[in-house]
Amino acid sequence: MTRQLEKRLVNDYLKEFYFDKHFQCRAWIGPVPPGEDEKLYQVTTRWADTIIFEPNLITIIEFKMEPQPTAIGQLDLYAQLFGKTLRFQQYWGIPVKRVLVTTRVDVHVQELCDQHDIEFRVFHPDWVTYWEKRRFKL
Known about the structure:
The protein has a single domain (about 1-135), classed as 3-Layer(aba) Sandwich (Trna Endonuclease, Chain: A, domain 1). With about 140 residues, it is an alpha/beta fold. The model has no long low-confidence stretch (mean pLDDT about 85). The protein contains five helices and five strands, in the order αβαββαβαβα.
């Protein structure tokens, strides 16, 4: 259920802020081992929620319904793996920006993002209030 809500958050966010940009949702990243069938390897690889492709900037975005410190490690890993993903080789020389999008502020996660040079953004569409009321039994 949370995955579906997260997907809705992704779609709403992209529609509002990146509707005119080239992006890929749920993009797998990382090297494919030599001799392995690429389709078989995709099952065990990493998946970035969204990658935005601009002429002078690549933005990797991780979405979380609730702020989680694990997202910081994910974004660090995704930035490393992006530079090893052969299908993105044409973008390897472009700077990579990492962004965590979540539905509310968590000061501790935000501080950790700052330490890792990750932008922390809060996106709270109207339907999230209803979800929070049910989630936290308010």
